[in-house]
Design goal:
The chain is built from four helices and four strands. By secondary structure, the chain is of the alpha+beta class. Helix 2 runs parallel beside helix 4. The N and C termini lie far apart (about 35 Å). The model has no long low-confidence stretch (mean pLDDT about 95). This is Thioredoxin family protein.
Length: about 110
């Protein structure tokens, strides 16, 4: 089980972090996750991805003001850069991250 402090430390220690909030009862979460993780891995080598199960880790979800699932939070350089909830496409997430990520990593 992770703590809010663990997550904050990961964000602090890594240039690019994605938090993926989901729950076992969420079918959309399970359909989206493998596609999203594959796209992140293929396009962005430096990303640290952290999965957060909101059914167990409600404090972490509350800390990041996440009230719907699935929710993706992307942090670049320690700052929240992108927040997507519920209806998102993998392509849209990749497209929005690509340019700032490339600038940051060059």
């Amino acid at each position: 089980m992770q703590t809010t402090e663990d997550i904050e430390k990961i964000i602090e220690d890594n240039q690019a972090v994605m938090l993926y909030f989901s729950a076992p009862t969420c079918n959309v979460c399970h359909a989206l996750k493998p596609k999203l993780l594959d796209a992140i891995e293929s396009n962005f080598g430096e990303f640290k991805v952290v999965s957060i199960d909101t059914s167990f880790e409600q404090e972490i979800a509350a800390h990041f003001s996440v009230f719907a699932i699935p929710t993706v939070l992307v942090f670049l350089g320690g700052r929240e850069f992108l927040r997507k909830s519920r209806h998102m496409s993998v392509d849209e997430v990749v497209r929005e991250i690509k340019r700032p990520y490339e600038i940051m990593m060059s």
